[in-house]
Every structure is written in structure tokens, then in C-alpha cells.
């Protein structure tokens, strides 16, 4: 009995170790109104998520080429983009990483002005998200996103930038820019090839 029990236990441990450590870390550095960022979500990440979700540890960082200034932030596509970035940072702080955060981003990136329907679909209270956006919490989250973006991308040179396993790779990035996210992911997770 003891033998069977420990065998079961060790296979359970093996399974959980595998699923905890084998995932590919995928960090997406993007901007809320950037057409190439929107394409990455609507054409690659979102439609393929059901296939890849079990293999990927996803981090979404809505900041891109924005920068913090005394009065707030400046964004490549103007104030509405800054609003979208902070809106997503606040929503993500209330959603679990992975599927829940991605579902929210998929809704928003497909329809960037449809704030209330994306909140509703993710079960978020508009008042909570507004409080985050106006209380200084949203600014803090965006400042963290700024540091993350500047440390882990070359600039970024291009938006969106995708970093695999926390190490920027220029040749992967070029392929992402040509629309081959799934092909690059397969390099890191052979089961997805
Ligand atoms: C980046 O990816 C390419 C293509 O897979 C690979 O040949 C190269 O060794 C990688 N570079 C680094 C620094 O890991
Ligand atoms: C490898 C793979 O399954 N890619 C799919 C990702 O989603 C797009 C859009 O639905 C498909 O065209 C690809 O075949």
C-alpha cells in the first residue's frame, strides 16, 4: 500500500512539476491603439489561445513607446491610447493572469472604445476600475509597466515586442513583426509545432 501510495504521490508531483515549470514565459509589450498590437491580439494570440494556453505563462504589458511625464503620460497614439493603457493595467490588476486577463485584452484590442462591454464581459465593476484609474493606483501600475518595458525590450524599437523566457531575441522579434507569432512559439514549445 505504501509503495502504491508513494508511487501515486510521485507521479502527481511529477505532473504538477511539469505543468509549473515547463511553461514558456511570453511577455507582450504593446500599446492600446497601435494597429500592429491589435493585429497580434486579434489574429494570433486570441484565436490560438485555446490551443496554446496550457503551455504559456502570459504577461501583458500595455505601455509600449509611452513615457511618463510630470503631468501623466505621453503616448504614441495620443491621450486616448494612454487612457486605454491605464484602463487595461487597472483591469488586469483585478483579473487573474492568463485566460482572464487575455480575454479582457482580446475584447479591448478588438474594440478599443467599447469600455463598458469589455468590463461587463469580464465581470468587472466600472466603478472599481474608475477608482483605480483616478486614485493614483493606475499611475503606479503604468510606472511599473514603463520600467518593465524599458528594462526588457530594446526601447522598445518596435511595438508590439514579444519576449520569450525573459530574454529578448532580435531574430524572434523580426518574425513576430512579420506575423509569425505561432512559429516562434513553436521554437520554445515543441508540442505546439
Ligand atoms: C535567437 O534566436 C535565433 C533563432 O532561433 C537563435 O539562432 C539565436 O541563437 C538566438 N539568440 C540568442 C542570443 O539566444
Ligand atoms: C498554428 C495555428 O494553429 N495557427 C492558427 C492561429 O490562428 C489563426 C487565426 O485563426 C489561424 O489562421 C492559424 O492557423
Automatic annotation (TrEMBL):
<dbReference type="GO" id="GO:0016671">
    <property type="term" value="F:oxidoreductase activity, acting on a sulfur group of donors, disulfide as acceptor"/>
</dbReference>
<keyword id="KW-0732">Signal</keyword>
<comment type="similarity">
    <text>Belongs to the GILT family.</text>
</comment>
<keyword id="KW-0325">Glycoprotein</keyword>
<dbReference type="InterPro" id="IPR004911">
    <property type="entry name" value="Interferon-induced_GILT"/>
</dbReference>
<protein>
    <submittedName>
        <fullName>Gamma interferon-inducible thiol reductase</fullName>
    </submittedName>
</protein>
<feature type="signal peptide">
    <location>
        <begin position="1"/>
        <end position="22"/>
    </location>
</feature>
<dbReference type="Pfam" id="PF03227">
    <property type="entry name" value="GILT"/>
</dbReference>
